[in-house]
Amino acid sequence: MSSADAVRSAAAVSAAMVSSAAVPAPNGATATTTGSAGAPRSAPLRVDAQRNLEHVLRAAREVFGELGYGAPMEDVARRARVGVGTVYRRFPSKDVLVRRIAEEETSRLTEQARTALGQEEMPWAALSRFLRTSVASGAGRLLPPQVLRVGAEAEEPAGSAGAGDETRVPQQRQGVGQDDFRVVGQRSGGADGLDGIGEETGAVELLEVVGQLVDRARDSGELRRDVTVADVLLVIATAAPSLPDAAQQAAASARLLDILLEGLRSRPA
After folding, report:
1. N or C: which terminal CB in the chain sees fewer CB atoms within 10 Å?
2. What is the span of the domain harbouring residue 252?
3. ∠ CA(37), CA(39), CA(44), 5° rounding?
4. What is the DSSP letter of 220?
């Protein structure tokens, strides 16, 4: 083979490799291509695929926040203004979508608790700031219902749950008797996509950080001695009503939280 033929052959092989690597994934997902060294690499989502993903996640937060995790995928697709097939291409089952939302919202609450803990010197101010921030964000409505069990020891008959059905978290240190609380992973048996959800959503980490806020406020004498982490998260979950008017919802949430905060405060003997 002459030197000119060798150059032409090498150029043809190089062009074929470039053309092969440039082919996008047909479904708009992250595409895996092969580089010149044979190592796979991930291509970014197409612009329209990324936009659809953002629409689906935003719609899922709204729908699950309003209707609970039992809402069907069709409602999510309708709110996102995409076909249900588009939702399933990104999330092959409802369980996958529910876990994604639960993980993101639990992580957001954990960061809000850390911020309050790190930036507020006064214990009550830190706890109050966390509650106000989390209620305003609406993240509490998206906590999976299995995350906490309040008074589980008293409510369940002995032997009703197996040892493999739950992940325990440390009991609150408050110096007085209280019911245990725990992160649970028991199967719901329903269609809400929450079967087995628990520790993998980051709930244990959330409970630990909120527990520090509760301990500090209780030790300062500003928080009632019988208030637990479970109580605080119940406040977050219930103090953000879903109303059609945004201004009305914000006002109602702020008023309800003011009342609940007064109920959490300790009173002079």
Report:
1. C
2. 98-151+198-268
3. 120
4. T
